[in-house]
Design goal:
This is Cobalt-precorrin-5B C(1)-methyltransferase. This protein has helices at residues 33-50, 142-158, 174-178, 183-186, 206-222, 234-244, 258-267, 279-285, 301-307, 313-320, 325-334, 339-352, and strands spanning 30-31, 56-61, 65-70, 73-77, 82-88, 102-110, 115-119, 122-123, 125-126, 164-171, 188-189, 191-192, 200-201, 227-231, 251-253, 272-278, 360-366, 372-376. The protein has 383 residues and is an alpha/beta fold. The protein has two domains: 24-201, CbiD-like (2-Layer Sandwich); 225-376, no CATH class. A hairpin with a 5-residue loop joins strand 17 (360-366) and strand 18. The chain is elongated, with a radius of gyration of 25 Å.
Length: 383
């Protein structure tokens, strides 16, 4: 997932995908769209300036890493004034929506020095404040821009060229692929983003998904959105919309990463935060766990049973051996115990520890169909 910050390539599920069993270190790393575009840009420049058709391009990546990327195709356009090169994005063993996509770059000469970037078909344009790029710019993130500029400068020096370049970056079928991402919600319209901070895609990395959460918060704050709703899934997002009628940019696709939201909002606060999620995931958050993924651990049924302080021993024992958190909830409800309300209050207590006192916090617990089980705007346990 090393290529995901900025457009959240896994919007369809809103969950961090589970890594395959076994040693994750054996999984094959890949290359970001930024690295892929850099290779295509260099190959275009060599054909344009020296009529040299490269079969592969040597890249110098951040963190002192080097690699060679293959050229897939190339053509000379506009009577020889422009060259387009395509390279295939290889995400390694990461389940990246852009894996296998053709990233293409057209390069043309400019009399003035420097590099001017343009969005080709399949690459989006920034339309909202809060991103790392100004409104109106093609969605080619800062590190890929830097990589392309530096590699073109190397090529120009090697070929004794003293002018500048117009660089147009596109992705075949990028507009369709972008529909699976958060780009439109972030204000990146028309296609995908060219991404990557290291040039390397590391399979199943959490850092990339967390970065996309932070970027969504940045966009909301830059556009003066006072109320955010952080949701664990598509159902909780629908409930948040029904309850609060928020604009799309106010909905934060938290997935399993509650800690990523809470810790970031501690440093970048908003006026109001609603946490909306399923009873099972929030039962984990209520115990202080900030990563809600199942591989980090299951439901603490002993803890749930401990909330049923007034229940008899048989009821608490039945809760401890329940198959699911909702089954434990049903047992508690049958005994007249407000378990959902107590879990919501416990979630509020945990979340409030990470937020500034100026942020109004509310918790909304739902069941699988999306019915609201409980709401809490303070941490006092109901009787």
């Amino acid at each position: 997932m090393g290529d995901h910050p900025g457009d959240g390539r896994r919007r369809a599920s809103m969950k961090q995908p589970a890594a395959p069993t076994g040693d994750i270190k054996r999984l094959r790393t890949g290359w970001t769209t930024g690295a892929t575009a850099t290779a295509a840009a260099v190959a275009s420049a060599y054909r344009l300036l020296a009529n040299e058709a490269l079969s592969q391009v040597h890249l110098w990546l951040p963190k002192n890493r080097e690699t060679d990327l293959a050229v897939h195709d190339q053509r000379v356009c506009d009577d020889g004034t422009t060259v387009e090169t395509g390279c295939i994005k290889d995400a390694g063993d990461d389940p990246d929506a852009t894996h296998g996509a053709r990233v293409w770059v057209r390069v043309a000469r400019r009399n003035a020095p420097g590099v001017i970037f343009h969005a080709g078909a399949g690459v989006g344009t920034v339309t909202r404040d809060g991103l790392a790029l100004p409104v109106g710019e093609p969605a080619i993130n800062p590190m890929p821009r830097r990589m392309i500029v530096e590699h073109l400068a190397r090529a120009a020096t090697h070929l004794d060229y003293h002018g500048g370049f117009d660089v147009t970056v596109g992705i075949d079928d990028g507009a369709r692929i972008a529909e699976k991402t958060m780009n439109a919600r972030l204000g990146i319209l028309g296609g995908l983003s060219i991404l990557g901070t290291t040039g390397v895609v590391r399979p199943f990395s959490c850092a990339a998904y967390i970065a996309s959460i932070h970027q969504a918060i940045d966009v909301a704050r830059a556009n003066a959105v006072p109320h955010l709703a952080a949701c664990t899934g598509a159902t909780s997002e629908r409930v948040a919309q029904e309850l609060f009628a928020l604009p799309d940019m106010a909905l934060i696709e938290m997935g399993d990463f509650a800690g990523a939201v809470l810790k970031y909002l501690r440093r970048h606060p908003v006026e109001r935060l609603s946490l909306v999620g399923g009873f099972g995931k929030f039962s984990k958050l209520a115990t202080g766990r900030l990563d809600l993924h199942s591989r980090r651990g299951g439901i603490d049924f002993d803890w749930l049973a401990g909330l049923a302080t007034e229940a008899d021993t048989a009821t608490r024992d039945a809760m401890r051996v329940a198959n699911t958190s909702l089954a434990a909830l049903a047992i508690a409800r049958h005994a007249g115990i407000p378990l959902a309300e107590r879990v919501a209050a416990a979630v509020w207590q945990v979340a409030a520890r990470y937020l500034p006192a100026t942020t109004a916090l509310e918790i909304v617990l739902i069941d699988k169909p999306g019915n609201v089980l409980a709401r809490a705007s303070r941490g006092e346990m109901p009787g």
